[in-house]
Design goal:
The chain is mainly alpha-helical. The protein is built from 4 helices and 2 strands; from the N terminus they run H-H-H-E-E-H.
Amino acid sequence: MRDLIKYHVRRPPRCTDHEEFNKWVHAAKQYPPSYKVWFCTDCTNSFQLQMKKEGKCDHPYIKFKMTEDEIEGYIDSEDSKLHYQTIQKLNEGKR
């Protein structure tokens, strides 16, 4: 569970609101995923594309791949530095 919390920003991404974000966190705590996940890697490709168009995607570098039975969001190792910098800015209130 610490891995899950570790990747959270202190407030929800621009694509959602506090209520939806808090519901997701609560559900993730009750039913921990089988892989390291956080709100934005639990997104879908189509929703991400929509949020990019609307300028509401805080993490546009997240990619999606099909595993055996589901689509999984992930961050390339080359994008991990960008991800860390984005999380820092969000936590500082800079968007």
